[in-house]
Amino acid sequence: MAAPRCVADAPPPVILPGTEEHILHAPAGEYRLWLAIPPGPPPPAGFPVLTLLDANASFATVVEIARQGALRAGATGIGAVVVAGIAYPGDAPYHRARRGLDYTPGPPAEESVAHPCGGRDAFLALLRDTVPALIAQRCAVDAGRRILMGHSLAGFFALDVLAHDTAAFTDYIAISPSVWWNKARLMEGAFHMPRPPRVFVGVGEWEQALTPWEANRPDAATIAERRGRRAMVDNARAMADAIAARGAETRFQCFQEESHGSVLPVAVGRGLRFVLSG
Predict the structure, then answer these.
(1) Strand ranges (DSSP E) for 128-278?
(2) Which residues pair with 250 in a beta bridge?
(3) What is the pLDDT of residues 143-194, one digit of tens each?
(4) Which of 177, 200, 222, 245 is positioned for an S-S bond with 271, CB 3.0–4.6 A?
(5) Residue 237 CB neighbours (<10 A)
(6) H-helix or E-strand containing 35?
(7) 260 and 232 in contact (C-beta within 8 Å)?
(8) How far is CA 172 from CA 20, 75, 111, 156, in A?
(9) Confidence of residue 29 (pLDDT cuts 50, 70, 90)
């Protein structure tokens, strides 16, 4: 049988129902705000809002986990929530230069990078001012339940906001946070808490070691050295302990047999349950 051929008039792309896109302009460039608003009437206080970073890579995943959870909220502990994904133009899942600028207060403490850094404050202003105002025009929202979720370098950003601008959000989900970027800055944060936030920190056990199938790779020693130096598991646990000691309601979970790339969908449901239940 001949292989199927591409045709000039390709079928239309699959669309994620119940979502919409808004274009945002800021000094750092253009952003896309992807919204998934739960169907039906909002609760009396309005919908909680989950601000999701790196939406190009994970918007559909997080939306479907949130939707499936909300279908049986009494059993899952995941109530209805607006997912507000912050995406960059284009189809690439990650935009290294843009995220490196937006998610960091400056260059890493002990490594060098080629892309610009230090746009953290401007990006946070976009999340605090422009994004909430637009969402409030689209649906009723609960100003007392504003959640920030980030993975990897976006997880570092989430913890940095928690440490230095705690009131920007009410709750935080940091998955595989790149604490190594500047651990001292995170630990030295003031953590001014108008009320104790709920903070979920998750990480995969293989983020600090080789996976079984990597052991025979030619570059296995290099990978193992980098993972040991960055200490993703130890640093995530240390941050969770420090946050709990400052009075936040904190949950830390190390997921067995998960790596930096595989842990996200596993951790999202646990994080949403922790911050949305009750």
Answers:
(1) 141-151, 171-175, 198-204, 249-255
(2) 199
(3) 999 999 999 999 999 999 999 999 999 999 999 999 999 999 999 998 888 8
(4) 200
(5) 17
(6) strand 29-36
(7) yes
(8) 24, 22, 26, 11
(9) very high
pLDDT in tens, 211-231: 999 999 999 999 999 999 999
Given the DSSP bridges, would you call strands 29-36 and 171-175 parallel, antiparallel or unpaired?
unpaired
> Which residue pairs from 66-75 have beta carbons closer than 8 angstroms and sit at least 24 positions apart in sequence?
66/36, 66/272, 67/36, 67/38, 69/269, 69/272, 69/273, 70/38
Torsion of CA 75, 77, 81, 87, to 10 degrees: -110
Cα dihedral sign for 56, 60, 65, 70?
A: positive
Residue 241 token pair: 């302990």
**pTM summary value:** 0.95
- Rounded CA gap, 100 and 119, in Å? 8
Between β-strands 141-151 and 47-52, what pairing exists: parallel, antiparallel or unpaired? parallel
Q: Supply φ then ψ for residue 267, to 5 degrees.
A: -80, -25
Q: What is the DSSP string of 64-129?
A: HHHHHHHHTHHHH-----EEEEEE-SSS-S--HHHHHHHT-SSS-SS---SS----HHHHHHIIII
